[in-house]
Amino acid sequence: MAKHLIQIVILGSQVIGRAFTRALRQELQYAKTAQQSGKTTASTAQADRVAGMTLQEAKQILNISDADFSDVEKIQKNYEHLFNLNDKTKGGSFYLQSKIYRAKERLDQEVRVSATENSKNSNRYKQKEDPSDSHSS
Predict the structure, then answer these.
(1) Which sign, positive or negative, has the C-alpha torsion 38, 44, 49, 51?
(2) What is residue 70's three-state secondary structure?
(3) Residue 23: its pLDDT value, please?
(4) Where are the alpha helices (DSSP H) in 1-93?
(5) Where is the composition biased (Polar residues) (predicted)?
(6) Which CATH class is domain 43-125?
(7) What are the CA-CA distances from residue 57 to residues 52, 124, 125, 126, 127 (Å)?
(8) pLDDT value of residue 100
(9) What is the pLDDT of residues 21-78, one digit of tens each?
(10) How far is Cα 53 from Cα 135, in angstroms, rounded to an integer?
């Protein structure tokens, strides 16, 4: 009996190990192809892993289109509406409320990154056009 139990445990461990390895390979392949396709940067991939949610998923949850992505007021309005709608005291779902919160968190993070990158690009552009660097007479 003990021999069969040990064999079952070993077999189960092998199956779980293979499944974990396969999932890890798929995740690495997904990250690699996403970066190569130009749809995501290394910082976006890192943010996806940290937040546990992709930017696209966050936009879908909060019903934000690509055109509305920079509209912080619309993001906040949609967030508040959905968050209050799913309030547990009103019969809502704590799970959905937490997904809404994480989606808002992920969008806020992306907005901050975009603002930082825009600021850096703006500073580079200003440095190139700085008249004090011009040596014309």
Answers:
(1) negative
(2) coil
(3) 86
(4) 2-37, 42-51, 55-62, 72-85
(5) 115-124
(6) mainly alpha
(7) 10, 32, 33, 35, 37
(8) 94
(9) 988 888 777 777 766 655 556 666 666 666 678 888 889 999 998 888 778 899 999 9
(10) 51
Residue 109 belongs to what H/E stretch? Answer: helix 94-128
Q: Nearest to residue 107, comparing CAs of 55, 41, 48?
A: 55
Map residue 46 onto helix, strand or coil.
helix
C-alpha 99: how far from its chain's center? Answer: 12
Q: Is 78 exposed, middle or buried (0-12, 13-18, 19+ CB in 10 A)?
A: buried
CA distances from 5 to 1, 10, 17 (A): 6, 9, 18
Does the pLDDT value for residue 130 go beyond 60? Answer: no
Token duo for residue 129: 């056009």
Return the axis-axis angle of helices 94-128 and 55-62, rounded to nearest 10°: 120
Q: What is the DSSP string of 49-63?
A: HHHTS-HHHHHHHHT
pLDDT digits over 70-108, tens only? 788 999 999 999 999 998 888 889 999 999 999 998 888
